[in-house]
Amino acid sequence: MDKIAVLDYGGQYAHLIANRVRRLGVYSEILSADASPDELHEYKGLILSGGPQSVHAEGGLSCDPQILHLDIPVLGICYGHQVLVHELGGKVESGEKGEYGKATFTPQKNPLFEGINETEQVWMSHFDEATFLPEGATLIGSTTDCKNAAIDYGNKRWSVQFHLEVTHTPNGLKILDNFLNQCDLKREWSLDQFIEQELKRIKDQAGDQNVFLLISGGVDSTVAFMLLEKALGAERVYGLFVDHGLMRKNEGVQVKASLEKLGVTNLHVYQGEEEFLAALEGVYDPEEKRKIIGDKFLDVQRKVSEELNLNPDEWLLGQGTIYPDTIESGGTKHADKIKTHHNRVPQIEELIRQGKIIEPIKELYKDEVRAVGEKLGLESEMVWRHPFPGPGLGVRCLCAQEAFPVPNAEELESKINDFLVSKNLNLTAKVLPLKSVGVQGDVRSYRHPVVLSGQADWAQLEAISPQLTNQFLEVNRVLFHLRDEAISDAQVKPGFSTRDRLDLLREADAIVQKSITRADLLRVIWQFPVVLLPLSITTASGEISGESVVLRPVSSEEAMTANFTEIDWPTVHAMTDKILSLPGVSTVFYDITNKPPGTIEWE
Ligand code: XMP
Hints:
Blueprint: E1 3-8, H1 13-23, E2 27-32, E3 45-48, E4 74-77, H2 79-87, E5 91-107, E6 120-132, E7 138-143, E8 150-154, E9 157-160, H3 172-181, H4 191-206, E10 210-214, H5 219-232, E11 237-243, H6 251-261, E12 267-271, H7 273-279, H8 286-307, E13 315-318, H9 323-328, H10 346-353, E14 357-358, H11 366-375, H12 380-383, H13 409-422, E15 427-431, E16 436-440, E17 443-454, H14 458-471, E18 475-481, E19 487-492, H15 499-518, E20 530-533, E21 535-539, E22 542-544, E23 547-551, E24 554-556, E25 562-564, H16 569-580, E26 585-591
Parallel strand pairs: 1-2, 1-3, 3-4, 4-9, 10-11, 10-13, 11-12, 13-14, 17-18, 23-26
Antiparallel strand pairs: 5-6, 5-7, 7-8, 8-9, 15-17, 16-17, 18-26, 19-21, 20-23, 21-22, 24-25
């Protein structure tokens, strides 16, 4: 079978490229950046991925230069572009400020750019840049801030500085398609092929063992369940649904009903609310919460196995892990740990090493999981359910012992306010004394959100949000205040994962779910976390006690990058009024941060 090798320089990029190559019908495999020429013989083309490095950094990754002289086409992307320039005798130097976000690319005539426009929007994320081309190489495209943005080295070798694999480069897939056309290969990858191979892989790994699958009612674990049942037969797959008390309103009942409707008969439901909440008592650190929840899932699984008298030697533990869970948990060689997903806690990692875990869709992105679900005949309501994280509301109910004071808050706010004035915006800023998780330059950040109060339209908010996070490194998230008043003070109150706080969050979340269903926005919005902050605000009209709620609707394709979604104002105001009428709600914010720099979930 013909296939493409993607060299992994870290972060999310190599897998996203592999996903895009598959989408174009070609098998792709990820190889380590230090792959030898021998390893590459069986491939029809080579792609060097992006990554968060610098070719000049000590221990900076490069490649075995010989792999660039094999008789197969080569494409370097972002960091891969710099590796090619560096290894083929050109020069890469530190830029002055880097280039992040949308840029306008002007290509020259070249087979790589066949069929694309005279100017194209591309997505840039780099600090270093190519300053001199290798001898004999030709410049084939530039952006305003990056002259050497695309290079042809001859012998079917090219590189581009921009990320062609992300959706923010709208014609990126066309460029990749042009590259594949140069590779003399057959397009043989298809979902049917994937399913067939996966069924075989499941049978091989399971051997005589049965599978005990943690199932949540979401599309990932349901698709994993269906594949396992198809491969092993229904009687050999046992589903365990753990209600951890961090579910949405009425979710436990709905999940059970929808699994039964699917014909899942071997299902055990475990009521774990008290145990989970007891384990989370007094804990506020996001990573600690994630680990506790992940470990508790395993405790429950063991307990249930014992109750059912299942011999551990005869059973594997199944999970519906998908690829982004692995990458965010720092699970590939050069990736930073952004968050520990519940299915990647250390105990699970150990079981993986022992060969005790089976994960049928761990190489797939959400869009592929949905496509497999559709192929297997899953109802569209289930296929298109919004993703819900394993730790549930546990990562949407922010906890605090005390405030995270903002260093030099007054000075920072006055700088941000000056910046807003310089942009002619009628907004005032308040930096909040708490933190949330973000991802910047492929690395985890844990920083303050800034709230903007006042009047602005979506276009203004969309423009100012990245400017603030690029300019003010103390903040990684931007919120818009949905109460028509500026905030003079914001006080953090101690608050943990308690049932009353979770109940309040469940009510706010239910209001949001109902509103977007009524407004027919379920398919427009990819995912809609509603977050509870232990924060009361003071405005000119006095202190408003209670907690704050954040609306975080996002649009995405595979969750590795996302844009905040702009919902029509009447719908936003109607939900806000309803949420504000809940006893104990101080105010409502709208999260206007893209990913990067803010992750989809706050923790
Ligand atoms: P972030 O917040 O990192 O989330 O942008 C990306 C996607 O992953 C989901 N998510 C999880 N899913 N277990 C899961 O099954 C987890 O521990 C977990 N943490 C985040 C998140 O909801 C989003 O869709």
